[in-house]
Amino acid sequence: NSNSMADETETKERKTFNGATVKDIEPARFVFALAAHFKKSGKVESPEWASLIRTGAHKELGPLDDDWYYVRAASVARKIYLRPGTGVGALTKVYGGSKRRGAKPNRFCKASRGHLRHIMTQLKNAGIAVTKAGEKGRWLTKDGRSELDSIANQCSRK
Questions:
Q1: Are 19 and 153 in contact (CB under 8 A)?
Q2: How far is the C-alpha of 35 from the C-alpha of 73, rounded, in Å?
Q3: pTM of whole model > 0.70?
Q4: I want to staple 38 with a disulfide (CB 3.0 to 4.6 A). Which of 26, 44, 71, 122 is the partner?
Q5: 130 SS3 class
Q6: Dihedral sign from CA coordinates of 91, 96, 146, 34
Q7: DSSP 3-state assignment of 5?
Q8: Cα 138 from Cα 132, distance rounded (Å)
């Protein structure tokens, strides 16, 4: 009797979730799908200066893809999903790379902060990310997390 009661309560408490989350989808596939969603929905807008900048001091040229800003915004949203509390400084290390210094040995160089701050602001204005009082970094809102999961779910069906 006690086992059957435990089984009943366990099935009542267990919520079924048939969809995929961001962690279940291949990162590149998810980021491009989310970037297309950002561009189509208008939640993130590419600024006028996006075609003029380099993404870091270690880069010789700016991004060649016209939609690079949406892809970077999607990647930032995914990083915040996977590691809540991530700030601009941490993202500069993630998107940094090796600076070629001619005959001298290469050294690691952080990415530019300006475009990352701008992306974070746009994610906040779109209601996807939020700052917490008294804490550094960004967190996803409940709506933002569900939006990313719905895009992941769509990716898993394709």
A1: yes
A2: 7
A3: yes
A4: 44
A5: strand
A6: positive
A7: helix
A8: 7
pLDDT for position 110: 95
> What is the distance between the alpha carbons of residues 39 and 32, in angstroms, rounded to a whole number?
11
Rounded to the nearest integer, the mean pLDDT of the chain is: 88
What are the backbone angles phi and psi of residue 114, rounded to the nearest 5°? -60, -50
- How confident is the model over 92-102, as a mean pLDDT? 95
Tokens representing residue 92 in the block: 């500069």
In the structure encoding, which two tokens stand for residue 64, read together?
A: 């060649």
Separation between Cα atoms, residue 73 and residue 9, nearest integer Å: 42
**What amino acid is encoded at 93 in this protein?**
K
Say whether 139 sits in a helix, a strand or coil. strand
Element housing 106 (H / E)? strand 104-109
Nearest-angstrom CA–CA distance, 88 and 27: 20
